[in-house]
Amino acid sequence: MSRKSAKALRTHRALRSGFGKTVRNTAITGGVAAGLGAWAIAPRTLIDARRHHVPQIPQVFYAHRGLHDAGSGLSVGTVSERCAYVDYARECAIRAGYGSADFDGPVAPENSLASFAAACEAGYGIELDIQLTRDGKVVVVHDGDLKRVAGDPRRIKDLTYDELTRIPLFPAPAKSGDFKAELPSNHEWDVAPKGYYQHVPLFEDVLKVVAGRVPLIVEYKFDGYGWSDADDELMEKGDELLRAYDGPYVIESFHPGAVHWYKEHRPEVNRGQLAEAGEFSLADGKWKDWLCGLLIFNWLGRPDFVAYDWHGGDQAQVRLARKMGASTVSWTVRSSNELERCAPYFDYHIFEAFIPDAAAGTVE
Q1: Predicted local confidence at residue 7, as pLDDT
Q2: Cα separation of 2 and 120, whole Å?
Q3: Residue 140: closest CA among 265, 258, 241, 225
Q4: pLDDT in tens, 183-221
Q5: Residue 231, SS3?
Q6: pLDDT over 70 for what percent of the chain?
Q7: CA separation (Å) from 90 to 100, 151, 212, 316, 335?
Q8: What are the residue ranges of helices labelled H in 246-285?
Q9: How many angstroms separate the CA atoms of 304 and 32, rounded?
Q10: How far apart are CA 320 and CA 315, in angstroms?
Q11: Residue 309: CB partners within 8 Å, gap ≥ 6?
C-alpha cells in the first residue's frame, strides 16, 4: 500500500470513528433530553394515587359554566344544535324553579345558579370557575371583568360581592342564545333591577344548589403566572369550601402553581393541569403559554388529568401524558362533529352549545 493510500485509509477511519462518536453522543444527548421531557410531563404515579385514595373523575359529560341559555359558545357551532341546546337549558332551568316560560330574557346565563340547577336537572356534570371579589368572597365567574356577561367594564377584583348582586347577567335587551351582553342605557350602578335576574353567585351558594347531585370540575382562575397573597387566599378559601362540601369534585387550573398547591396540601384530591397548544412568541409573555402547552411543568403538580383544548388532543405531549397514566379531558366541545373528532384522544368531555350524544363520545 502506498504512503498516500495508507494516509487516506487512516483519515477515513478517523472520520468514521469521529462520526460514530458524534452519532453516539447525539443519541445519548437525545435520550437524556427525551428522558427529561418524559419525566417533566409525567402525571402522578398510580402508587401515589392509591396511597392517597384519590377518586376517579366521574364518567359523565360536563356542562361548561353550567347548562346555559346565554353566554359562552353560543356564537359558534351548528345552528340547529345550538338552538336545541338553548331550549333545553331554558327548559331545565324553569323545571328547577328558575324564571318562567313567558320571561322574555335569558333564564339561565352562564355561571349562574340557574345554569347550574339546569345542569343538575339534566344530569350533567359541571365545569365552573372561581375567583375572589374585592372583599375576599369566592365567586363563580369566568372573565376577569363583567364586560361580556353584563356589559359592565368593571373588574371582579374591584367589586364587592354586594355590588355584584345588583348587576344582572345578560340584562335586557339580551335574549336567550346571546353570546355577549350590552349595558342597558338606563342602568343604575347602585340599584338592583326589578323582576327576575341572575347575578354572579357565591361559590358557597353554588355548592348548596348542586348539593352533590352531579360531579364538579372546579377551575381556579388566575391573572397570569405570577403568585401573590391574593392567590394564596383564593386557594385557601376555595379549598375550605370544598373540604366542607359533601359531593364529588376535582380541581384544575392553567397555573401550575395551583396544581402544585393541591399536591402539597390536599394530595387526596384529584387534580388537573389545564393547557392548550400555542405558538412561541416573546410578545406579551406568550412564551409562558407555549411552555405550559407543552406540559413541561407537570413535574410541579404531577396532575391526575390533563384538560386540553380539544383541537390539540393529538399533540405528542398529550398522547405521552395519557400513555403514562393521565386521564384526558377535552375543552370546550361545541358540536357533535367536534365530539366525534376528538373522542379518540380524550376520556372525558366539557361541552356547550349542543346536547351531547354518549354514543359519539367515550362516556357511557
Answers
A1: 56
A2: 90
A3: 241
A4: 887 777 778 888 999 999 999 999 999 999 999 999 999
A5: helix
A6: 88
A7: 9, 22, 22, 40, 18
A8: 256-265
A9: 25
A10: 9
A11: 275, 276, 277, 330, 331
Residue spans of alpha helices (H) in 176-279 = 203-210, 229-243, 256-265
Is residue 353 exposed (0-12), middle (13-18) or buried (19+ Cβ within 10 Å)?
buried
**361, 316, 356, 315: which is closest to 341 by C-alpha?**
361
Residues whose CB is less than 8 angstroms from the CB of residue 265 and which lie 6 or more positions away in sequence, other chains included: 235, 239
Describe the crossing of helices 256-265 and 229-243 by its angle, rounded to 10 degrees. Answer: 50
Residues 6+ apart with CB under 8 A from 40: 295, 296, 297, 298, 299
Total-model pTM: 0.89
Whether 31 has a pLDDT exceeding 80, the answer reads no
Cell 340557574: give the residue.
114
